[in-house]
């Protein structure tokens, strides 16, 4: 039995209007630490000249709904045709339920549309797409929307190096039957021994009572430099080898934490093209991949596209797409 072709039918993105440049004084402490300590967390995160920030009171759900509506328009799909909404918003207004339900409401999706929050930072978009694809192959869905939004500029400690690149944004994609951008295969690795190496939690030890992201002392930096650096290239190589492909056959779109990772992965994978939005959007954590696709998906010039992400819990996931 031949499986139906399930494709990305359209993409959308939305960014806050407020722009923060890398010269902003809020980053002075990070710059001082990078100069003083050499190889440290502060020295690992660089490569963006600016990023977007949600304004006080600005809604992450509204931003994500805007991206979702743009994806529907790009795909030529009506809201009532969507039967599943996969994705995640971080950091959500409530611990539970996830703010993805508010996106459902603001987009006017029907009550028949199942909402599937995917709490798997930073591979939420890739995993949501795979789950939507599998539901379609099983005959339980016809058209799905995957929407993710990140508002971490409100949830980082600006004394920590990773905060330098963090930007806010939202991205979305519509999936359904199609012949372009067809989902082909995926691969995943789970490194549960790194659970707790990177966390989003209150940090009373430094006087912060709201949830903020952080690389935990010793373990977090080690995870970044080991599986964070080498895990994605190994996963991509395994996926490509399975299909008789090489880096020269693909365009790569990845998680975009820092230029250090992008340059290293580029050297290891050697894709024909490597697309990103790091320089002007920064690290939009779970939204970087769909925002990049919304900007560049009509410019793809290779036969295949690979999306790859890694997680804080930790896991890696790669998706192979036939252009």
Number of helical runs? 9
- Name of the level-1 CATH class of the largest domain: Alpha Beta
Radius of gyration: 19 Å
Strand-residue proportion: 25-35%
* Main sheet summary: 5 strands, mixed
Give the overall average pLDDT: 95
Structure notes:
The protein has a five-stranded mixed sheet with strand order 1-7-6-4-5. The protein has a five-stranded mixed sheet with strand order 8-14-13-11-12, with helices on both faces. The chain is 31% helix and 27% strand. The mean pLDDT is 95. It is globular and about 60 Å long. The longest helix has 24 residues. It contains nine helices and 14 strands. Strand 9 and strand 10 form a beta hairpin. The chain has two domains: 174 residues, 3-Layer(aba) Sandwich (Peroxisomal Thiolase, Chain A, domain 1); 139 residues, Thiolase/Chalcone synthase (Peroxisomal Thiolase, Chain A, domain 1, 3-Layer(aba) Sandwich), CATH 3.40.47. It has 323 residues and is α/β, with parallel strands linked by helices.
List key phrases describing it.
single chain; alpha/beta; Peroxisomal Thiolase, Chain A, domain 1; 5-stranded mixed β-sheet; 14 strands; 31% helix
Concise summary:
The chain is of the alpha/beta class.
What topology emerges from the helices and strands here?
Layout: E1 6-14, E2 19-21, H1 28-37, H2 41-44, E3 50-52, H3 60-75, E4 84-90, H4 100-107, E5 114-117, H5 124-137, E6 144-150, E7 169-177, E8 182-190, E9 198-203, E10 208-215, H6 219-242, E11 250-254, H7 259-269, E12 273-275, H8 278-281, H9 288-296, E13 304-310, E14 315-322
Parallel strand pairs: 4-5, 4-6, 11-12, 11-13
Antiparallel strand pairs: 1-7, 2-3, 6-7, 8-14, 9-10, 13-14
Helix pairs in contact: 3-4, 6-7
